[in-house]
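Milestone M4 deliverable, item 7.
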Amino acid sequence: MQTLRDVPVGKTVKVQKLTGEGPVKRRIMDMGITKGVEVFVRKVAPLGDPIEVTVRGYELSLRKADAEMITVEA
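Output delivered:
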């Protein structure tokens, strides 16, 4: 099982499942990251936080901890 945190820069993956709870999961879903949506990893900061992604045409920044809650399929 691979999370969004493990995806290399420049790769597009499809979201399989969100494993977060409560407000964190709601915040991720409010960003438009839901099951079946494609996420493109644009950039990762030198220390790995934040991870910058493109979702549905929007450029977003995710915390490393949030990215670990997003299960993806390559």
